[in-house]
Design goal:
CATH architecture: 3-Layer(aba) Sandwich
Number of domains: 1
Structural class: alpha/beta
Strand content: 15-25%
Number of helices: 6
CATH topology: Glutaredoxin
Number of strands: 5
CATH superfamily: Glutaredoxin
CATH class: Alpha Beta
Mean pLDDT: 86
Helix content: 40-55%
Strand order of the largest sheet: 1-3-2-4-5
Order of helices and strands: HEEHHEHEEHH
Largest sheet: 5 strands, mixed
Radius of gyration: 16 Å
Length: 140
């Protein structure tokens, strides 16, 4: 029982450390371009009209809670809570209020949700993608 508790603590601690300042979660700037991630990463775009949007805060916290799952699936999280920024990604996907958008490695929108999604649901959606299935097979 003691070994299990230690393992759970280490796993939780690892997730917390990974979430702090992890480069897979970053804010979108004027130069951020989806082409930079083509064929290497699956961007998850999180847009809101304010950093104080409760859905934005919940989504970011949910994503930070399980960085390991996201890293396993080559996810990069791109955040934007400033509609006035008028950056390239906002012009491309035209978000209205809060939205979560999953982009495949091919650069195409795979999922668009107007409410927060937990990492488990996002992971399931990614795991159903043909390219992810190939990645899983290649590991075996």
């Amino acid at each position: 029982m003691k070994k299990i508790m230690v393992a759970v603590f280490l796993l939780t601690f690892t997730n917390m450390v990974a979430a702090e300042g992890n480069p897979i979660i970053r804010f979108i700037d004027k130069d951020t371009n989806l082409e930079d991630f083509a064929w290497t990463h699956r961007p998850i775009l999180v847009f809101a009209n304010s950093p104080n949007d409760i859905n934005f805060e919940r989504q970011v916290n949910m994503l930070r809670s399980n960085i390991v799952e996201l890293e396993e699936r080559n996810v990069v999280v791109l955040l934007d809570s400033d509609p006035e920024a008028n950056n390239l990604l906002r012009k491309t996907v035209r978000p209205r209020g809060f939205v979560v958008i999953l982009i495949g490695k091919d650069g195409q929108i795979k999922l668009r949700k107007p409410s927060p999604w937990d990492v488990r649901a996002l992971s399931r959606a990614i795991d159903k993608m043909p390219m992810r299935r190939q990645e899983i097979k290649a590991r075996k």
